[in-house]
Amino acid sequence: MWHRLLASSCLLCAAESGDQLLCPACQADLPALPEKCCPRCGDQTTHGERCGACLHTPPHFSGVSACFRYAFPVDRLIQALKYQHRLPLAAWFGRQLASILSAAEHDRVVPLPLHPSRLRERGFNQAVEIARTLGRCLDLPVDVTSLQRHRATPAQAGLPLRQRQDNVRGAFECHSDLNGERILLVDDVFTSGASAGEAARVLCLHGAINVHVAVVARALKD
After folding, report:
1. Is residue 45 part of a domain?
2. Distance, CA of 164 to CA of 109 (rounded, Å)
3. What's the CATH number where 168 sits?
4. What integer is the mean pLDDT of 71-92?
5. Does position 161 have pLDDT exceeding 80, yes or no?
6. Helical segments of the chain, H only
7. How far apart are CA 60 and CA 203, in angstroms?
8. How many domains are there within the chain?
């Protein structure tokens, strides 16, 4: 535990932050989500009502919990985890998520899986690393085997919404009986919700009665 006795620098401003990754000032300035948002997908709405997209085609997940809005500098922190292997950020993200979630509402944590080819390329799955800390904080089992991504798909970034939905259709498979279970599906970022929605659909087909999505950041349509 000697590292706790040594001063460290904030990842964003380089100020002294003790044993924390971010100094208090930078953490307080991280982009917050709007107070009024769709109770199903978490996108911003005028009065906190359900958005038109969820009314037209209800997603297979029951709701979305996010810590931050996907904007600077949260986007840089997530990219640092994914592409620069700053793994301590995964534990920090997991603790942030644990602070806004209740263990009593879920039975197991399931990270959104990567296809084996993408996993070999990146070396780790950021959703798994975040989920491990989240599971420890909430004292929930973390299931990394039941949900698998069996079809390699192009990256979602840059694809229009309709193409994103088509891109991930049939990409996941489940190997467990989840009868009656409440699943906490974990990922780093929620944008269109196509991947989370398809994964939730598969989990529900295998018996899950509720799938709630937990992400570090939620991208808003505006």
Report:
1. no
2. 24
3. 3.40.50
4. 96
5. no
6. 24-28, 52-56, 74-84, 88-98, 116-122, 126-138, 161-168, 194-205
7. 9
8. 1
Task: Print the domain residue range for 87.
Answer: 60-218
Answer yes or no: are the C-beta atoms of 11 and 23 closer than 8 Å: no
Half-sphere exposure of 203 (CA within 13 A, CB side): 34
What is the per-residue pLDDT across 27-74, written as a single tens digit (0 to 9) for each?
Answer: 999 999 999 999 999 999 999 999 999 999 999 999 999 999 999 999
Per-residue buried b or exposed e for 137-175, using 16+ beta carbons within 10 Å of the residue's own CB: bbebebbeebbbbeeebeebeebeeeebbebbeebbebe
Give domain status of residue 86, yes or no.
yes
Report the interhelical angle of 74-84 vs 88-98 (nearest 10°): 130
Q: Are 35 and 69 in contact (CB under 8 A)?
A: no
| Whether residue 185 has pLDDT greater than 70 | yes
Going by C-alpha positions, the residue among 74, 75, 53 that lies closest to residue 64 is: 53
**Is 156 contained in some domain?**
yes
| Domain-located, residue 70 | yes
Question: Contacts from 147-155 at CB under 8 Å and sequence distance 24+?
Answer: 147/110, 147/112, 147/113, 147/172, 147/173, 147/174, 147/199, 147/202, 147/203, 148/113, 148/172, 148/173, 148/174, 148/175, 149/113, 149/114, 149/115, 149/116, 150/115, 151/115, 152/115, 152/117, 152/118, 153/115
Rounded distance, CA 184 to CA 101, Å? Answer: 10
